[in-house]
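Subject: Sanity check before I submit

Could someone independently write out the structure tokens for this chain? I want to compare against mine line by line before I put it in a report. The sequence has 191 residues.
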Amino acid sequence: MARYDLADPAAPLPQQLVIDSSLLLALRPGDDNPHAMAVQAFVRRLRPYIAALEMVAWIPLPVLQECYHIILTRHLRRVWESLDSASRLPNWLAVYKRQPELLRDGFSDIARFDDLLATIPLTPVQPEDLTAEGVDEPLPERLRYFITTYHLLPQDAFILAETERLGVKAVVTLDSDWRRVLEFDVYTVLA
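---
Independent answer below. Compare away.
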């Protein structure tokens, strides 16, 4: 299927697309992703179509989970790095396991991220949405298919397997690995 440069304002837009975590994380204020401005312009382009109900931008649960995981682990890493290096535990995970309440301070980062997502707005994928006709193989088999065919890591393969189950044919991501996938139109930065 096609590859579209999300930085191209003339690129055609689909009626439905699944948005990947890499794109959503680049929307955060102050994010250091070099493509953040192109991502912001692309999302600005989507908003009126979504608001007019001419487009659906889906967010599968694995995407949301991955975003939350990255946000919270970055918070925990900052906490760990701020500790005295002579007496701190060997890594951020050890600190978290000993003091799980440290995660609480990262909850405000999650709330800000949720507020940002609400401005798009995204449609969360629900289990009943994952019933596309023509997909007969069980989800674990499709997961393995995307892993072994395109050499994707399991999280990316899972997102694509869910996208397939939704019956959606377009994805938007900053992850260059997704360019190898032939089953979907991929909106990404091509330059």
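---
OP: Matches mine. For the report I'm noting this point. The chain has one domain: 3-188.
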